[in-house]
Structures are given as structure tokens and as C-alpha cells.
Amino acid sequence: MATTLPAAVTAAQTGPARAEVLDQVARLTDLEESVIEQMRAEVLGAPTRGVVAYGEYQSGGWWTTSLMNHSGDPHDVVIGDGRPQRTSLLEEMPATARFLDSLGLDFMYVRLARLEAHSYLWEHRDYAELRETGRHRLHIPLVTNPSAVLVTAGARVHMAAGALWRLTPSQAHGVCNTTGPDRIHLIADVYADDAYHALAARPHLRDGDTADLPEMTGADRAGLLAQAGQLAELGFITAAEQTLLRAFYTYTLPEGGAYDLIAELHSGRRAHADVNRWREAKAHLLARP
What we know:
It is built from eight helices and twelve strands. By secondary structure, the protein is of the alpha+beta class. The protein has two domains: 11-212, Jelly Rolls (Sandwich); 218-285.
């Protein structure tokens, strides 16, 4: 499954900022290209695109379908604790099933996630609804492009194909695919055990995997609020809000800073119900597990 890793950047070789990114997202091992190609072919030939779930987290354009869950129905995609079974979709994907078996991991849930062009998953935390700890999320990019990035800890991270990545979803993060084509990842939520710890023993990033986002200046902030305010005055409330939500992918902001910008926009409009709605959204989307 794995190939020899070239020189990589580890936590010991980084400053505090890069170490924070590495703690949240990292490469674990390279994968054989033939394995990726076989899984990619199965995914692209799948009979379903998936379903839209977790709508409050996204702009639209994020579709998921399950390969391992508790019901066997591939359209049951809301994750939860338990011992999963193969879905009917995975039964039709022998190469993907062999790959998952080869990992020897204790799975909680396995999904395919498709993010269309010009789509966003807004800043959020995962696992807030789950009680236990000791879970980890693995990403295997199957189809991607340079504009499809994860944003976390003030940095953009492109999770390149050809590797198995670890994400710490209990930390605030967001995803965007600004130009396309579609980004398709196999996402496995697993429980910590000896097999996982062996797989995750050498987290690393390579040069070029990450890029720091600039700080937002006062002029940047004023310009964004003015742009959003003009849209709101014309009645394009959703467009105004999404203009500010996208700031998370452009600037280094404090946690929840994009939601605070929206609350400030609506406060200036004296739209107090909207202020409260976005304060509640911030608390919900960024809830700690």
C-alpha cells in the first residue's frame, strides 16, 4: 500500500505556526498510484452522486454517500458511533473494499464526499454531537485540483492525491473548491487503536502543502463590510452574508471572525433577528465536542 516517503517537514522542523497546522492536518503515508486509480475509477462510475446533508455547514454543492455505516443504506450519511457494516454501494466497489480492509483499522463511518466547483463548507467543528473521544478522521483524495483547499489555523492546505491524510476535525476548519473540477475524497472516521497509532506515527507536511493567509487589515474589513452592505441594501441578503463568510478563506481571522462580521453587518442594518441568528449559528457550528 505505502511507498517510501521523500524528505518531509515534521513538527520538529517547523515554527509554532506550522506546528499548529501540522497538529490539525498532516500526511501520514503515500499510496500506490495503481490503488488510487482503481478506487477513482469505481467512484467515478458509482450509480449515485450522493445526498446533501449538514446543510447548515455549506453553501451548497457538497454531496456525500456512505461506504460503511450502521444501516447499509449508502444515502444514510449522518455519522454516529457504532460498528458499521458495508453499504450496498461498497459491495459494488471491490478495489475500494480491499483498500479499506488492508488498513486494518477500527472504522466508525466511511463516506465519499464530493465538493463541486464554487462551493464552500463554512468554518465549523465536527464531532460536537458525539460523546466519546479517541476518534480520528482520514482523508484519501481521489479527485482534486489546486483550488480545492482546507483552511485551518490561518493557513490553506491542499490535500494532494496520492497520499493518506489525517484531519483533526474537532478543530475549527473549512473547505472550499473555488474553480473546480469537483473534489472527491474518501473520508474514514476511525477509532484510536494500535493499528491507527502505527499508521499515524509520522505525521508530516511537504514544502508547498500549505500557504499562510494574510492578516485582515482595517481597510480590508471596512471594504468587505461596505461591499456586503451594498448587497444587503439591494435585497441580496444571502449574497451579502456569503461575501463575509468567504473572508475565512482569504484572511487569517480569529475563530468565528467571519460570523462576527455578519453579525456586525446586520447590527448596522438594525436587523436584530439576523444578528441573533448568526450568533446562534456561530455557537452551533463551532461547538466543542
